Amino acid sequence: MYKRISSKLLFSHPRLTVMEDQVELPGGEVGDYVWLSGLRGGITVLARDLEGRLLVEREYSYLPNEPVYQWVGGGIEAGETPLAAAARELTEEAKLAAGKMTPIGTILLNHRLSAARNHVFLAEELTPCESLTRDKYEAGLETFWMTEAEIEALIARGEVIVASMLAVWALYKSAPRRSV
Q1: pTM (2 decimals)?
Q2: 41: part of which helix (H) or strand (E)?
Q3: Whole-angstrom Cα distance, residue 145 to residue 101?
Q4: Beta strand spans in the chain (E)
Q5: Residue 175: what pLDDT?
Q6: Helix 148-156 to helix 163-174 angle, to the nearest 10 degrees?
Q7: In what order do the strands lie in the sheet with 66-70?
Q8: Rounded to whole angstroms, how far apart are CA atoms 148 and 157?
Q9: Which pLDDT value is given to residue 177?
Q10: What confidence score (pLDDT) does residue 179 get?
């Protein structure tokens, strides 16, 4: 275990706080550890229709400067439960409501920089609904209903490059099989 000796603020912004801790490592050596503070975590929703197809998004991502495949998802707002965040994001991004929302696992978003977790849900019994808002950064968001085989083909061709999409796919594939 690392032991925190001191901590200082390096940068603060409404969306991101960067901290630097001086830590004592297990062998007694002292070092600096930079990490992100205040992240509330997020959610991912795998929306599955009656035919067993899953909703996949493709959206432009600023830093790699290219469109990437991803699942419906986003951050958990202050005071919001993961389940409420999942329902909100499904409505905002896909204009869908789920009659059934099943948790299928949790992943760490970036274990080297934060303890923030991403809660993963399977949304079923879907009905169309109107979205009240959409994040201004979700420009050019496209959605596709895909079979598992089509998603696996995207992965095999190297077209899925978002680590969290791959991790969530592994959770989904290893979850107890549910009837379609």
Answers
A1: 0.91
A2: none
A3: 18
A4: 3-13, 16-24, 30-37, 42-47, 54-61, 66-70, 72-75, 96-108, 117-128, 142-146
A5: 86
A6: 140
A7: 66-70, 54-61, 142-146
A8: 14
A9: 61
A10: 46
pLDDT on residue 54? 98
Give the C-alpha separation, 94 to 57, whole Å.
Answer: 9
Alpha-helical (H) ranges within 3-48 are none
Beta bridge partners of 105: 120
Q: Which residue has the tokens 């099943």?
A: 102
pLDDT at 15: 84
Regions of the chain where pLDDT drops below 50: 179-180
Fold of 42-174: Nucleoside Triphosphate Pyrophosphohydrolase (3.90.79)
Cβ distance 46 to 54 under 8 Å? Answer: yes
Write down the domain spans for the chain. 3-37, 42-174
Who contacts 89 (Cβ-Cβ below 8 Å, separation ≥6)? 43, 45, 72, 73, 74
| Dist. CA 148–CA 143, nearest whole Å | 15
Q: What is the CA radius of gyration of the chain?
A: 18
The first and second tokens of residue 150, run together, are: 């089509």
